[in-house]
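Objective 1.3, modelling of assemblies. Example input:
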Amino acid sequence: MSDDTDVLAPDTLNVGDRVELTFPARGDLVVLARLVSSAISARAGFDIEDLEDLRLAVGELCLLALDGGDAPDGQLRLEFTCSAETLDISCELIGGGSHAGSSNGTGENQQLSQQILAALVDEHGRDESDGVVRAWLRKRRGGPLA
Amino acid sequence: MEQHFNIEERSEQGTTVVAVSGEIDVATAPQLQECLHSLIAGGKTTLILDLLSVTFLDSTALGVLVGALKRCREEGGDLHLVVTDPRIIKIFEITGLTTVFPIADSLASVSVS
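Predicted structure (tokens):
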């Protein structure tokens, strides 16, 4: 272990590092976001419990952006940004126009997503601007990044 | 490592048990929804849902379970859950659903009236 705070282990994320993931806006691919979330959270210094929380929370972000249904021709773009004290994650639905609709896309499900996010992360939200739906969260670490 | 999603139905002492394994999420929840709705429509309104081998569950899955619970109770039955994984139980707790579903930690401890 090094005492030099400017040097991080090779498999950790540095403060200011940003990772992007873009994939077709389909529910069956949300698992990709969860997998990447786990890998990034571990490298950002979160413990196993936070890692599991973030895996679930990122899935909920995707569901909020998708509004319960696949978006044909749309893309989900996730951005993970590591700061000294937080991991910020946003999920945007880009393009795709109207949703294809899904039997699971209900206000009740959105409420459940919001409840889950409220319990698992420090801040979260969902907004829509210029036709782009964006859901986001912020999770604080127990301590600052080494 | 990742367990494949699967649904199995069986009867135990006259009650239908639906055992699910793997991840129940937006991709797989519709299969579970179809299974539960089909059973309820067929008159099996008291169900035991064995979630002991479920490794992940999201809000879509919760929505399916709540919908099935409502349908069961409308028909005079109930939907019992069997779950022990603390991560799964935590999801029910944070959404307040531990007070809505009858939840047991083993099939043997489910009390079907």
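The interface with chain B takes residues 27-28, 30-31, 34, 52, 55-56, 59-60, 63, 66, 68, 102-104, 106, 108-109, 112-113, 115-116, 119-120 of chain A (CB under 8 Å).
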